[in-house]
Amino acid sequence: MSYATVNGATLHYDDHGPVTGPVVLLIHGHPFNRTLWAPQSRALAAAGYRVIVPDLRGYGASEVTPGKVYLSDFADDLIGLLDLLTVDQAVIGGVSMGGQIAMETHRRYAHRIRALVLSDTSALPETPEGKTWRNHLADRLLAEGMAGYADDVIDKMLATYNVTALPAVAAHVLGMMRATDPRGAAAALRGRAERPDYRDTLAAARCPVLVVVGADDVYTPVADAEAISRLAPHAVLSVIDGAGHLPGAEQPERFNRVLLDFLRTQAPDAA
After folding, report:
1. SS3 for 123?
2. Which residues partner with 52 through β-bridges?
3. Which among 123, 97, 85, 125 is positioned nearest to 209, based on CA atoms?
4. If DSSP codes are grouped into helix, strand and coil, which group holds residue 15?
């Protein structure tokens, strides 16, 4: 693990694979950390890619910024990290909130992105009801900590059947959620409640876009992924059977095949 100071915060990250390889930057969702992407990091590095996987500000080992952290703040952090690593362009991928951060990074820095990978996410702006819910959840996490919330949502983060069928995966996901600093999670929730509409920028995207979704995702179902794939002019949609909201963790071999095939066939300039 390495660390760097970016925009006033210390961010921890992993940097796998050959330094001269094409760069893929992967963004975890809420409330996880960079280890969510371990199966993809190994597969991509073995295929010759350089894989940069940060802990977002407020998550994992990275420094916490209490209060409110916007998706634009996360995007600025990621580009700042790439600048420090002297990386001009990268494939940017994210899951759930990480997918929205990837879209925000594309909205602000499209010239830095070779391709987008959007897993189990939504391009829509937050609704008034959603804004209220996220702020109430932030209050709860600050008051109660992460453990109760983690127990409440594990069978939504993973497909219900995978909670028992994949005990090691469930334990890893629960461990990441419980270990997250409530201040970091709350700040991201409050910022995410203000997120913009990404549909126009996706419709104008010039880079290839891979849209991936677990077949049994209850948070961002297949219909959401289909909507994103219809928006982006150069989009490829893949539905991962046997998975919920985190197909990269639940079905890593299937997810990795889809990702590597996309990079080879749809984004050859990144390979």
Report:
1. coil
2. 15, 25
3. 123
4. strand
- Spell out the residues 6+ positions from residue 244 whose beta carbon is closer than 8 angstroms to its own: 156, 157, 158, 159, 160, 162, 214, 216, 217, 218, 250
d(CA 228, CA 231): 5
DSSP 88: -
* Site of tokens 């960079």: 34
CA–CA dist 177, 154 (Å, integer): 9
Given a contact cutoff of 8 angstroms between Cβ atoms, the answer to whether 132 and 229 are in contact is no
CA-nearest of 192, 68, 73, 75 to 127 is 192
125-140 pLDDT per residue, tens? 999 999 999 999 999 9
Angle of helix 97-109 relative to helix 182-192, nearest 10 degrees, comes to 60
Give the residue ranges of DSSP H helices in 85-195. Answer: 97-109, 128-144, 147-157, 160-165, 167-179, 182-192
Q: What is the CATH number assigned to the segment(s) 2-270?
A: 3.40.50.1820
pLDDT interval class at 1 (50, 70, 90): confident
- Exposed e or buried b for every residue in 157-170, given b needs 16+ CB within 10 A? bbbeebbeebeebb
- Determine the pLDDT at residue 266: 84
